[in-house]
Design brief:
six-stranded mixed β-sheet, alpha/beta
Length: 292
């Protein structure tokens, strides 16, 4: 009888241990799930740290942006007419106004973080901002690491030299010459591919200053920026001697996996084009629709 009672007690004790272990296991799983949800809500678009939860992370990032009431946007602030400071010191420009309109249509405010181009992608990686608005060219190597919106700017690159320069007439003439460029930009890649010696600049304005002072021989830059500069400063002694054949497309830039945020931005751009707001902004800076 004692043996029977011992066996019953042992079986009851074993069952309690099993139930206790199961309860602990459920508690750990709940904590793991809650941690994942909290990280998604507190973070920004597409962290890339989770393997199979890209859509969830993307949704949570858009949800977090709407919850905070603002979208943080990286831009140079020195790249007229896309992003620059006007005479009063206010940040403005084509990209700035387009980004502000996008934010408005998403239902949040635009908060701009100014940074040099060469550190902009690193700033996006470090989650300093949710989106980059800075005429970023859509390229395959970038698409492998980042997400882009639909194209909203079409443009060509032009080779700019001092007005008195008669030695540089084409891109091939850049061989051995000093070209002022942002070192990690597409324009810098074009100059380097044509044998130029790159001189690092912070932006278009600095490149023009170095060019007119004779410290560099040339710069490859955006045709739209050149046209805007000549409109504002028709006496600046520079000229275009060549342009690239390829038309580049630019889009808003995001961390990889930002599906929901990209979709919201694309929808905003589509609405802007449909109701005429995009054309209104485009004509303000370029006198025409630069998306075609």
């Amino acid at each position: 009888m004692k043996t029977w009672r011992k066996n019953i007690c042992f079986m009851l004790l074993f069952a309690v241990i099993l139930l206790g272990g199961s309860a602990c296991g459920n508690k750990n799983n709940d904590n793991g799930a809650n941690t994942g949800t909290n990280n998604g809500n507190n973070g920004t678009a597409g962290t890339g740290n989770t393997t199979n939860s890209g859509n969830a992370a993307s949704y949570n990032s858009l949800k977090a942006i709407k919850s905070s009431g603002e979208i943080t946007i990286g831009t140079e602030g020195t790249y007229a007419p896309f992003t620059f400071h006007d005479a009063s010191g206010k940040l403005t420009g084509f990209d700035v106004e387009i980004a502000e309109e996008i934010a408005k249509r998403i239902g949040v405010k635009a908060k701009f973080v100014e940074t040099k181009w060469d550190g902009m992608l690193a700033g996006l990686d470090a989650k300093r901002f949710d989106m980059v608005a800075n005429e970023v060219t859509i390229r395959d190597d970038r698409k492998a690491k980042y997400d882009f919106s639909d194209p909203y700017i079409l443009s060509k690159a032009v080779l700019i030299v001092k007005e008195s320069n008669t030695n540089i007439k084409s891109l091939t003439d850049l061989k051995g010459k000093k070209s002022g460029q942002s070192l990690t930009s597409d324009l810098g890649d074009i100059a380097k591919a044509n044998g130029a010696q790159l001189v690092a600049v912070d932006g278009f304005n600095q490149a023009i200053d170095l060019l007119t002072s004779g410290r560099i021989d040339a710069t490859i830059n955006d045709k739209l920026s050149y046209l805007d500069l000549k409109k504002a400063r028709p006496d600046v002694p520079i000229k275009v001697v060549a342009e690239t054949d390829q038309v580049s497309q630019s889009g808003m830039l995001f961390r990889k996996g930002s599906n929901e945020l990209v979709a919201a931005v694309n929808n905003a751009i589509k609405e802007m084009k449909a109701d005429g707001r995009y054309l209104e902004i485009s004509k303000t800076y370029f006198g025409e629709d630069v998306s075609k």
